[in-house]
Write a structure and sequence with these properties.
The radius of gyration is 30 Å and the shape is elongated. The chain is of the alpha+beta class.
Length: 630
C-alpha cells in the first residue's frame, strides 16, 4: 500500500511524462477499439458474399497492424519515461527502498495509468467507430446496409489489450528500474550508458533471425508464400522490432553520417552539438525515432508489396498471352453465338474462349481443396494463344477426360489420375495432360467446358492474321454488347488497384495518424524534460534563438534517423519479395514506393520541426539560473 501511494504521488509530480504516456496508450487503444468494432459489424451484419469476406480480412489486418504499432510506440515511450526518472528512483533507493519495491512502484504506476488510458481509449473508440463504418460505405468497401451491431467483446478486448500493452511496454523498463542504485540520485550528467545490454542485443538478433529463417525456408520450399498478403503484412514487424532493439547499435553511425549533411547555418556555432546531443541521449533518440521507424517501414513494405505483386501479375499475364485483342462478353450472356460470329471474321488467326469455374481436388486422405479454374471451349485456341509455363506435357493434350494443373498440387506426372469435384458437386477422375510451373496469375487449373457445368464465357482472346483488322472484330462483337479491348487495355483493367489501395489506406491510415500524434507527443515530453540542459546552454552564452534552433535541428536529425531505418526495413522486405519472384521465374519489374514513403518521411520531418521549436521555447520560459539549479 505504501508503494501504491508513492506511485500515485509520482504520477502527480510528473505531469508531462504522465500526459505523454497516457496519450500514447489511450490513442492506441482507441485505434484498436475502432477496428474491433468495425470487425464485429462485419462479422455480425447481414449475410454477404466475397465483398464481406474481403472486408473482414481487411479489418482483421488493420486491427493487427494497429495493435502492433501502438504496442511498439507505447513500449518505447514507457521505456523512455522510466529512463527520465533515474534520479528519482535513485532517491527512493537512497531513502531505503529495495529493488523489489522500486519495481513494484513502477508496475503500479503502469497499471494505474494503463487502466485510465485504456478506459479513455475505449470511449474514444466507441465515438469514432461510426465514422469508420460511414467511410467504408462511402468508399464502396462495405456491402449495402453495413452498420454497427451490438457486440459485447470489442471494447473489453480493447481494454484488456491496452492493459497488456502497458504492462508489456514497461516490463523491460521495470528490470532497468530495479537496477538503479542509490548513487544514481547524485548523477547530474544526462549521458546514456549501458543502453545496449546483452539481453537487448540477443533479443534483437533473435528477432532478426525470426525474419530471415522463414524467408530462407520459403525461398527453398514455397516462394509463393512470401507473396501472400498475410505474409508480407506480418513479416516486416519482426524487422521493425529488431531494428528498434538494435537502435543503440545502428543509430550512432547514422547520426554521424546525417550530421555531416546538416546545414551548419541552422544552428550557428553550436552545429556540432546537434549530432553529439543525439548520440549522447540514445534512449531519447530511440523514443523519438520509434514512431517514424514504424511508419516509414510499414508504408514502404505494404505499399511496395502491393505495387510489386501487382506489377509482377501484370507482367506475367502479358508474357503468357499471345492475343492481340480480348473480347469481354456482356454479363450473363451466352458466349457461344459471339464466339461463332468472331470465327466468321476474315483474317482471325486464332481464338481462345475460357470461362471461370470452381474445381475441388480430392486429396489422398479424402479432403477436398477448392480452387478457381478456367474452362476452355476452344482447346486448339488455348494451345495457340496461352503461353503457359510448362514443366511437363502440353495443353494440346487437354480433352474432356483430362486437366492442366500447376505443380503446387503435387501431381507432376503426365497421365496421373486426379479425383476432382466439379462445380455442380459431381465427382470424376481426370488424368494430367500438362503440369505448369507455379506463378502468380492466370496459370492455374484448366479443364474443358464438359467439366465446368453452368460456366459462362467471360473472356475470348483473339489473335489477328496479317490481313485482319480490329474494326472487323469490333463490328462482329457490337450486336452482342461485348467489349473489345486491346491486350494492354485488358491488362490495365485487370490490374486496377483501387480496392487494393483502399485496403492499404484502411490498414495504414489510422496507424500513421497515431504514429504522427505519438511523435509529437514524444517530442513534447522529451523537450520538456531538458529544461536544465537547455538552461546550461543559455548560461554558457547561447541565445534563446540558438537553443531553439539547436533543439529543432536535433529533433529533425533524430527523425531522419528513424526514416532511414524504416527505409532499410522496407528495402529488406521488398528484397525478399523480389527474391521469391526470381525463384518463381516471374518477370518482376523493380517497383519502389517512393511517393508514399517520401510523403510519410517528409511529414514526419515537418512535424518534428513544428513540434520541437515551440516545445523548446516553452522549456526556456524559466530563468536559466533557476532552471539550472533544479
Amino acid at each position: 500500500m505504501r508503494m501504491l501511494r508513492i506511485a500515485l504521488t509520482s504520477l502527480k509530480a510528473r505531469p508531462v511524462s504522465l500526459l505523454g504516456a497516457f496519450l500514447a496508450l489511450a490513442l492506441g487503444v482507441a485505434m484498436t477499439a475502432v477496428m474491433l468494432l468495425g470487425l464485429a459489424a462485419a462479422l455480425g451484419g447481414a449475410a454477404g458474399g466475397e465483398e464481406l469476406v474481403s472486408l473482414v480480412a481487411a479489418l482483421g489486418t488493420a486491427g493487427g497492424v494497429s495493435a502492433f504499432v501502438s504496442a511498439f510506440v507505447v513500449a518505447s515511450t514507457y521505456s523512455y519515461a522510466v529512463a527520465q526518472r533515474r534520479r528519482e528512483l535513485g532517491l527512493l533507493r537512497l531513502a531505503g527502498a529495495t529493488r523489489a519495491q522500486v519495481r513494484r512502484t513502477v508496475l503500479a504506476e503502469a497499471l494505474l495509468l494503463g487502466a485510465a488510458a485504456s478506459a479513455t481509449g475505449c470511449l474514444l473508440g466507441r465515438l469514432g467507430a461510426p465514422a469508420l463504418v460511414r467511410g467504408l460505405s462511402e468508399a464502396g468497401m462495405a456491402p449495402p446496409g453495413f452498420a454497427l451491431v451490438p457486440a459485447s467483446w470489442p471494447l473489453p478486448t480493447a481494454f484488456a489489450t491496452g492493459l497488456l500493452v502497458a504492462l508489456g511496454g514497461v516490463a523491460a523498463a521495470v528490470r532497468r528500474a530495479g537496477r538503479v542504485g542509490p548513487l544514481d540520485a547524485l548523477r547530474t550528467a544526462d549521458l546514456d550508458t549501458g543502453v545496449l545490454t546483452a539481453g537487448r542485443l540477443l533479443t534483437g538478433l533473435g528477432l532478426l533471425l525470426a525474419f530471415l529463417a522463414p524467408v530462407a525456408t520459403a525461398l527453398a520450399t514455397d516462394p509463393a508464400d512470401l507473396l501472400h498478403r498475410k505474409t508480407y503484412t506480418t513479416q516486416p514487424m519482426w524487422l521493425i522490432c529488431a531494428s528498434g532493439l538494435l537502435s543503440p547499435l545502428l543509430a550512432p553511425p547514422l547520426i554521424r553520417l546525417l550530421g555531416r549533411v546538416l546545414p551548419r547555418r541552422v544552428t550557428g556555432y553550436a552545429g556540432r552539438l546537434v549530432p553529439a546531443g543525439a548520440a549522447a541521449a540514445l534512449r531519447r533518440t530511440g523514443a523519438v525515432a520509434a514512431p517514424v521507424l514504424v511508419s516509414v517501414a510499414l508504408t514502404g513494405a505494404l505499399a511496395g508489396a502491393l505495387d510489386t505483386v501487382g506489377a509482377a501479375r501484370t507482367a506475367e499475364a502479358r508474357a503468357r498471352t499471345a492475343a492481340d485483342l480480348v473480347v469481354v462478353p456482356a454479363p450473363g450472356a451466352d458466349g457461344g453465338p459471339l464466339l461463332a460470329a468472331l470465327r466468321a471474321v476474315p483474317g482471325v488467326a486464332a481464338l481462345s474462349a475460357t470461362a471461370p469455374t470452381a474445381l475441388s481436388l480430392v486429396e489422398a486422405d479424402g479432403v477436398t481443396v477448392r480452387s478457381e479454374a478456367r474452362a476452355t471451349t476452344a482447346r486448339a485456341g488455348l494451345a495457340a494463344l496461352a503461353r503457359l509455363p510448362l514443366l511437363a506435357g502440353s495443353p494440346a493434350g487437354l480433352d474432356d477426360g483430362s486437366l492442366v494443373l500447376p505443380a503446387e498440387w503435387g501431381h507432376r506426372t503426365v497421365g496421373e489420375p486426379v479425383p476432382v469435384v466439379r462445380a455442380d458437386g459431381s465427382r470424376t477422375t481426370l488424368r494430367v495432360a500438362a503440369v505448369l510451373r507455379d506463378g502468380l496469375g492466370d496459370n492455374g487449373l484448366y479443364v474443358t467446358a464438359a467439366n465446368a457445368p453452368g460456366a459462362l464465357v467471360d473472356r475470348i482472346e483473339v489473335r489477328l492474321g496479317p490481313a485482319a483488322r480490329a474494326a472487323g472484330v469490333r463490328a462482329a462483337a457490337l450486336p452482342f454488347g461485348a467489349a473489345v479491348l486491346t491486350r494492354e487495355q485488358w491488362l490495365a483493367a485487370g490490374a486496377s488497384p483501387r480496392i487494393a489501395w483502399l485496403r492499404i489506406v484502411l490498414v495504414l491510415g489510422p496507424a500513421l495518424v497515431y504514429a504522427g500524434i505519438a511523435l509529437a507527443n514524444t517530442l513534447l515530453m522529451a523537450t520538456a524534460d531538458r529544461r536544465r540542459e537547455l538552461a546550461l546552454l543559455r548560461l554558457a552564452g547561447a541565445t534563446r534563438g540558438q537553443v531553439v534552433r539547436l533543439v529543432t535541428a536535433e529533433s529533425v536529425l533524430v527523425t531522419a534517423v528513424g526514416a532511414v531505418l524504416g527505409c532499410a526495413v522496407a528495402a529488406v522486405q521488398l528484397g525478399s519479395l523480389h527474391a521469391a519472384l526470381a525463384v518463381l521465374r516471374v518477370p518482376a519489374p523493380l517497383v519502389l514506393p517512393w511517393r508514399p514513403v517520401g510523403v510519410v518521411a517528409a511529414g514526419a520531418l515537418l512535424l518534428a520541426a513544428v513540434c520541437a521549436a515551440p516545445a523548446a521555447a516553452w522549456a526556456l520560459r524559466t530563468r536559466p539560473v533557476a532552471a539550472a539549479a533544479r
